Fold:
Amino acid sequence: MSELNLVLMGPPGAGKGTQAERLVDDFDLPYYATGDILRAAVEEESELGREAKEYMDRGDLVPDKVICKVVMERVDSAEAEDGFLLDGFPRTSGQAETLEEALDRRGRSLTAALLIEAPDEDVIRRLSGRRICKKNGHVYHMDFDPPKNEGVCDQDGSKLVQRDDDKPETLKKRLAVYHDQTEGLIDFYENRGLLRRFDGTRQPDEVHNHIRATLATLKLEAEL
Ligand SMILES: [Zn+2]
Structure:
């Protein structure tokens, strides 16, 4: 039985979340979003959670080694023995190396790093067009799914607002950080022949079919 040990990468707004949901369904993989599992570890007050919390409380970044341990705790669980989908870790080539070593010690390795790409202008157009209704959080898009009356929710008549995270200035900063961190990570996986690129500007169904076909091929190759 071959494992599907996957890392998912891509800028905000490239459709990573949608694709992750579908992959989890297709291949029956556990999905580990780093932010979520770190928060869970802190809430459970596990030893690692307490360690991570000390850094967070001081306003420091949680060190790679600690994040990696939290991730590996999940990777070592029974549900992940045939594979897993990581999102949000690794974020840098240093973290990728730490993960590689940790997997190596277990006689495991990554199957692929999936990169969903979209140009910055595309991401900014997609996310900055988003409007949220104040009352119930209904989501609209100025270009793709506009309300009947400008600035007003169709369902409850409340005012539509733009989240701070979706403002072009904030997005540009987030994207700059993303590129800064990810370039080295992309090189890291490219050098190891693990990187698979997908065009996030295409329809979600097309992207999904492309990823699924790629993974099916990888699985087949591994079983030969
Ligand atoms: Zn509403």
User: Anything to note?
Assistant: The radius of gyration is 19 Å. The mean pLDDT is 93.
